Request: fold
Amino acid sequence: MQIKRQHIISSLLGLAVAALLVLEMPSKPKTQYFHNEGKVFGTYYNIRYSATEDLKDSIEVALQAFDNSLSLFNPHSVLSAVNANRDTTTDATFDAMWAEAERVYTLSGGAFDITVAPLVKAFGFGRKSDQFAAISSQTVDSLRAFVGFDKVQLIDHKVVKQDPRVQLDGGAVAKGQACDMVAEMLQRQGCENWLVDIGGEVVCHGLNAKGEPWHVGITKPNLNNEGAQEDLQEILAVTDICMATSGNYRNYYFDGAERRSHTIDPRTGWPVQHSVLSATVVSSSCMRADALATACMVLGETEALEMIARAGDAACYLLVAKNDSLTAVCSSNWAETLEKSK
Reply:
């Protein structure tokens, strides 16, 4: 009987100690949704994610890493050094941009080309200090002599140019690639739900704070009432998507009576003039979607749909001006691609 009583007392003491240990253990931090926003690359970012702590500092580190590599406005970036013909070694961010740019250059038949920078600047769509410029055919022809992705190579992390006047512009993939970099950082931090929006380019995963799919809008172009509140053409409900939109309805100017788009066809040297007003592309990365959306704007409706079909990992939604009205033209796999993203 004495032994049994001692056993009971020992068991009770053991339970008491275990209870004290549980009470002393720190509670696991609760996951909550955070919202960070700010200005970057001349546009705005909005990032929502679930985490145990605010990751704003980590987000800004990721954005700064991108800026240090590919910003045209940072004189110390790798891209600025390449354009200034300074001896520089490229980094992983630059190399990733280069590889995707080369793939889309080939896929688009040269409609997407990061060496278009001299033409962009000549037409006044470079730095904010540039003025919109009237430009002659002779000037365009002279600039085209050193525009072309076939005039540059990346060898052992060094950009080799056929002509030192070749200049690179990564702007057509910048926001998309930055979205990818922030999303990758959130994933490394253990986040399971996020939406990264940088200037309208979007990467999202998981669910929003209401436990619902993320809602992503496609803007309806407004050509007749400049400065008016923009409406949404579509609102997509998605949980896992990389999406980018390129358009000709915001950034343009008039050269006399002629309306000049900011999208330049590197094959001709001139701003494009066709009925496609915006191209929204979903692809395997936001960087790729960004590049493909730009290529769609250069190619026009028919060739854009053909390119997307060849891509194998992309779908597109084009808004086209037809008979004084706006028409949505989608690739054959658009609906299926959105369904898979839910």
